[in-house]
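About this split. The held-out portion is used to measure sequence recovery: a designer receives only the structure tokens and must propose an amino acid at every position. Recovery is the fraction of positions where the proposal matches the reference. Here is one held-out target exactly as it appears in the evaluation file.
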């Protein structure tokens, strides 16, 4: 007879990183509480793969010394001892000198918004704004072609509301990237054929 694995009620980031969670789920730590993350649905995963490929190719083609990372852990600056969040994509421009348990200085973070987890996703987004090096946070929709973009102001503050991108060009100034928004969705069910 095997004992059932218990999920800790509260943890620190150090405890979370040392923890061996049960099952195949991906986990994040939100205010000290481990939270399982559901697997991405097909549209979510396809958008993640498509945008990841576009960004990676852009960085390579323009010899930009940055790295795309898929589902990294990032630690918000506020309550950093009890939070490690997991965005869908991140770009960091720091040298790759050692293995990190979590990215410490991303410049771009991307979340893909599923209709069932909007509150959790936006809670993550606002937590990301506390990371000093983050310049942009992109939130892509999965119910329709569209995105919302938060870009840090020159004075270091954040706008009160994200700018909406529903068509045309998506521009990510943090990495000098421009692409037709529809290209991000080209292999999804949302693509306009």
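Reference sequence for scoring:
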């Amino acid at each position: 007879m095997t004992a059932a694995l218990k999920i800790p009620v509260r943890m620190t980031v150090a405890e979370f990183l040392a923890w061996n969670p049960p099952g195949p789920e991906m986990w994040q730590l939100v205010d000290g509480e481990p939270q399982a993350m559901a697997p991405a649905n097909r549209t979510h995963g396809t958008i993640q793969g498509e945008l990841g490929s576009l960004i990676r190719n852009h960085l390579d083609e323009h010899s930009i010394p940055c790295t795309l990372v898929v589902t990294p852990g990032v630690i918000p600056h506020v309550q950093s001892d009890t939070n490690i969040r997991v965005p869908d994509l991140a770009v960091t421009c720091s040298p790759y000198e050692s293995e990190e348990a979590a990215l410490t200085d991303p410049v771009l973070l991307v979340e893909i918004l599923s209709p069932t987890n909007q509150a959790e996703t936006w809670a993550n987004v606002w937590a990301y704004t506390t990371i000093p090096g983050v310049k942009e946070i992109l939130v892509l929709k999965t119910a329709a072609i569209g995105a919302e973009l938060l870009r840090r102001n020159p004075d270091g503050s954040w706008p009160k509301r994200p700018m909406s991108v529903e068509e045309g060009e998506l521009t990510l100034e943090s990495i000098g990237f421009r692409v037709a928004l529809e290209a991000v969705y080209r292999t999804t069910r949302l693509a306009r054929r």
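Annotator remark: The chain has a mean pLDDT of 91.
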